[in-house]
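Q: I have 423 residues here and want to know how they pack in 3D. Can you give me a structure?
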Amino acid sequence: MASTDTKTGTAALALRLVKGGLPAIAASAFVAFVPILGSVYLSVDDYAVWALAATLSTIFIVFDFGTPTLATKLAGSGELDFRTSLTLCGLSAVPPIALGVLSIGIWPAYSNAADLNSDNGTAILLIGLISVGGMLRSIGIVYGAAALGRMHFYRRTAVLFFGGSVQLAVTLAALEAGTGLVSLGIGTIAAGFVQLVIGFAMEGGKSRNDMRLGPDAGAAVRRMILLFMKTRVFVAMLGLWITQLDRWALGLLGDAELLARYDIATRFVMIPKIVLIALAAGLVADSSRLATKDEGTALLARVQKLVLLLMVPLMVGAAAVAYLAQQTALGIAPSLAVVALIALAHGANCMTIAPVNVLAGAGRPDFELRYLVPLAGIVAIAYATGIATDNGTALIALWASAMMALSLWFTASSVRYVREVLT
């Protein structure tokens, strides 16, 4: 009987995760494919700039103070009132603008140091457009996250799917029209506007939110917001340092071909990870309702099994496509070593997705720092070593080794962490 219950519970969990994750997977597929479009329309030198700008788009979304995760958690527990939803939207809009201004300020010096053959005015315009589009998109994502917490799967689909598809269509149309590098920014602006409008219409109005919280509940939610802000700022900084600034470090080596080869391989290999992150997002809502440590460890075990079963075949397939894409899309000799290292590193990191979401849903997002802090330190050494020796291969190898080792260590420790939080 217990076995049957476990199978039924796993099947029901998988169905919920699929319902919540499919819209994000579709939208992420559109968004992930958009930067790859540039390799078809642009020269290798221009694609290097395009790739760096695309990482900024990701940075603006990832550096979100944890507002989407918190929106899902609060909506799942019936604590997301109108005032709180506006607060989360306001917080999510700050990083894209602030980081956009910072990026524009440092771009001339960086492009000169990296010997990038691009017009600085065009690059700065591109960064500005991506910054504004990122602000609009961040707000839309908060509303999509709230829909996930309330299990409004069709509303979540509308927010994410239309935003992603609009970005792909508009970017492609702009490239065809000959706008070049700026096409990425035009597509990001269009997608952000669509997501904000649909998100507010579906989940933003007063009638769409929970009843206004009382003084005690409101104070508890404010404390939770501060915890997520403090933790997620640090987590976002470390995560971006580890998974986005790798290309900026490679860019300083002055080898546009290596940067382009690494970037396009990373984008294909990241697709399975994007899929799994999207599927696991619903864990936050499930975990917000956990009552005992046994429930927590059982949920974690079921999801880890699902992640492993999906990750291995998806990662192998993505790695094969990434290898071929270096030749077909860029016209340069493919590197099996680069693809293999990237695939192994991100494959190992996929195993941290389940525990991170379970712990965040239980109200402890800070546990993720236990592996991100040492990982960021080792990655810093990898960047410094590669730049100092002018050796991109060493940089990639050290980065990948650190990612694999620390990710697997955190995964092995996660059961103990979940039991500790739910005791």
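Q: Anything worth noting?
A: The chain is about 85% helix and 0% strand. The longest helix spans residues 2-41.
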